[in-house]
UniProtKB/TrEMBL annotation:
Assigned keywords, A-Z: ATP-binding, FAD, Flavoprotein, FMN, Hydrolase, Nucleotide-binding, Nucleotidyltransferase, Transferase
Pathway: Cofactor biosynthesis; FAD biosynthesis; FAD from FMN: step 1/1
Gene3D superfamilies recorded: HUPs
Designated name of the protein: FAD synthase
Length: 356
């Protein structure tokens, strides 16, 4: 278990230093302190789902509490809420449980009813997936909506459950940044909308960049979910989250300093190219195994996240085309999330379709 006093020393020293990240850290700590003053030190919680942003926020929150709490009070748990998405990554939930122990979280685990899920991209659970890399080795069903999936309603119900369970909580720290969906419309502190449970939403890191987040985590050696070391840059449900294609390592490239290289734009294959190649290369595929254009596109979109470029290479080869990514010679490799240099590509691995 971490010591809040040590975290407080660490983050406030950084905030008061000449480090390039210092202004961001100081701004975030000031927002947290103002929220604690306005709502009450013991009446502020943190929304924690195991992602990189809220991991940064949790470390800052622990530091802010460590500075103002007495030695005996530092042993008190930190209030937190976890609102799960449909079919979360098991390795992510393992990290959340580790954080509960490390930071002494009093975590309210909220799972809204299936018909009112927080994310609308839902499919039946994939029981074989137990860790991040397994997700790339097992073909998954095409994403679809389930029941009356409606994200906003699911979130509202989750907060109602939390308010009923913890009526003394007035403020919730949230790790939203400007580049997140709807992030451009928020401020450091804003109340929940009419018709929602009354909370003060506190957003200390809204001005942080993607690079700021990773600089903080790595510079202070803050533990984070290991999915980020496997090429994931933004985490959600297993059915709408893929490794970021911008971090794909080109196996044919070499570098003198052994740093993996990013794939060139010419190596990316569009569905149209895949379809055209099939139509012009069917002589290499036995008639009994040939696919229709519709099947090609469908299998292409469900396979390329596991082996970008693999569909075309299989089509161009002399071997029979195989439908599933697990049949390829080796799984693709990705650089860790902190190697992404283009902030605007942070969510390139999220969506209904496989990113190309």
């Amino acid at each position: 278990m971490i010591r809040m006093e040590q975290v407080a020393q660490q983050v406030y020293d950084l905030a008061n230093s000449n480090d390039p990240l210092a202004p961001r850290v100081k701004e975030a700590l000031d927002v947290i302190d103002e929220g604690l003053d306005a709502c009450g030190t013991d009446k502020v919680s943190i929304s924690f789902n195991g992602g990189k942003d809220c991991t940064v926020l949790l470390h800052l929150f622990a530091g802010a509490l460590g500075k103002r709490r007495s030695t005996t009070q530092c042993s008190s748990p930190i209030p937190a809420i976890y609102i799960a998405v449909p079919s979360p990554f098991p390795v992510l939930e393992e990290f959340i449980q580790d954080a509960v122990k490390d930071y002494n979280l009093d975590l309210f685990n909220c799972r809204p009813p299936q018909e009112d899920t927080v994310e609308t991209i839902v499919t039946p659970a994939a029981e074989k997936i137990t860790r991040g890399s397994d997700y790339m080795n097992h073909p998954l069903p095409r994403p679809r909506g389930v029941g009356k999936a409606k994200g906003g309603e699911g979130m509202r119900q989750a907060l109602e459950m939390y308010k009923a369970q913890c009526p003394h909580i007035n403020g919730i720290l949230i790790g939203t940044r400007r580049t997140d969906p709807h992030g451009d419309k928020i401020s450091f502190r804003c109340p929940t909308d009419n018709g929602w449970p009354e909370f003060d939403r506190i957003n200390p890191i809204i001005n942080w960049s993607y690079a700021d987040v990773w600089t903080f985590l790595r510079q202070l050696n803050v533990p984070y979910c290991k999915l980020y070391d496997e090429g994931y840059t933004s985490l959600g449900s297993t059915y709408n989250t893929f490794p970021n294609p911008a971090l794909l390592i080109n196996p044919s490239s070499t570098s003198s300093d052994n740093e993996p290289s990013l794939p060139s734009a010419s190596s990316v294959i569009s569905p149209t190219t895949a379809l055209t190649t099939v139509m012009s290369s069917t002589h290499a595929i036995p008639v009994s195994d040939a696919l229709s254009p519709t099947e090609v596109l469908s299998n292409y979109m469900s396979a390329t996240h596991a082996n970008p470029g693999g569909v075309l290479s299989a089509i161009n080869g002399t071997a029979t085309y195989n439908h599933y990514p697990s049949a390829f010679s080796s799984p693709p490799q990705y650089q860790p999330a902190y190697m992404l240099k283009e902030d605007h590509l942070e969510r390139a691995g999220r969506g209904l379709s496989i990113p190309v």
